[in-house]
Specification:
Length: 310
């Protein structure tokens, strides 16, 4: 990859260099990580054991919750360890693998959010054809294709970021190995790499955002044509949780990766914390607290278990 990196090590500067803030931050982010794991694993388990939730919408939600667990696990354990450790070094191979897996799961999430938007578009705009269009086979094909494209994208991202020559400073001004701070350490020209990365980010982030916007424009037009106020309210309530998840995910992604390199500043760490740590914790709450079917599923499951015992 452009040079001998076997002995290369980086130093992650982390969230803060204040020794007084590190312990409180460790406790705070540890609690967030635990809540994230419990919430997302809880959704996966609930959907799997509740027959009433075996629908395409919750099929996608299960995969989304699984990705949130993987996504935050790539970042949080290392970040927590660094908050309590004086040694914040990370080897070249560890840094590269962290970025590869992070890019992989982040790209899949972009595609999955777009799929969920399309699923809701079909459910509201073409309800009579929903079972035919969003069949079980189609669901698996959509998810499998997103995994494949995400893997190819992550390989290209990683090659562009780590394929140059590192011969200067080794301090990464971030709490994980992300594209922008690592590219700043390259001694070779990064213009071509930045253009390739921008092209793929445009396809994945902006492209999926367009799918999302077109789906919701169609949904909005359909909802406004509904005669019943109750039907409108139900449709808006169904879409509200997905809109909140998309806004937090795509908003921070666009802020981070589609601004000029010269514009990156200290707010980047705050944006990174939001989409790597906070958003994966909030999504289970967003989908469960705002969804009547999810809230009703534990009660139905308990009644079903009680009937079986009798």
């Amino acid at each position: 990859m452009g040079g001998n990196h076997t002995q290369t090590k980086f130093i992650l500067l982390g969230i803060t260099d204040s020794p007084y803030a590190q312990t409180p931050l460790f406790v705070f982010f540890l609690l967030i990580y635990i809540v994230t794991l419990v919430g997302n694993v809880g959704i996966i388990t609930l959907v799997q054991v509740s027959p009433s939730l075996h629908t395409p919408m919750y099929f996608f939600l299960t995969h989304f919750a699984f990705l949130e667990v993987c996504y935050t696990t790539v970042i949080s354990p290392r970040m927590l360890a660094d908050l309590l450790s004086d040694d914040k070094t990370i080897s070249f191979s560890e840094c590269m693998m962290q970025f590869l897996t992070f890019a992989f799961f982040a790209t899949i999430e972009c595609h999955l959010l777009a799929m969920m938007a399309y699923d809701q578009h079909v459910a509201i705009c073409q309800p009579l054809l929903y079972v035919t269009i969003i069949s079980s086979r189609v669901c698996w094909q959509l998810v499998a294709s997103s995994y494949l494209f995400a893997f190819l994208s992550a390989i290209i991202y990683t090659w562009c970021v780590f394929g140059g020559f590192f011969c200067g400073p080794n301090h990464i001004d971030h709490f994980f190995c992300d594209e922008v701070p690592v590219l700043k350490l390259l001694c070779s020209d990064t213009h071509s790499s930045e253009m390739v990365i921008l092209a793929f980010i445009t396809i994945n982030v902006v492209g999926m955002s367009v799918v999302f916007l077109l789906s919701y424009i169609s949904i909005l037009c359909t909802v406004l044509r509904m005669c019943s106020v109750q039907s409108r309210a139900r449709a808006f309530h169904t879409c509200a949780s997905h809109l909140m998840a998309v806004a937090s995910f795509f908003g921070t992604k666009i802020f981070m990766y589609l601004q000029p390199p010269s514009s990156h500043r200290s707010l980047d760490k705050v944006a990174s914390i939001i989409y790597t740590v906070v958003t994966p914790m909030l999504n289970p709450c967003i989908y469960s607290l705002r969804n009547k079917e999810v809230k009703a599923a534990p009660v139905k499951l308990w009644v079903y278990i009680c009937l079986l015992k009798e």
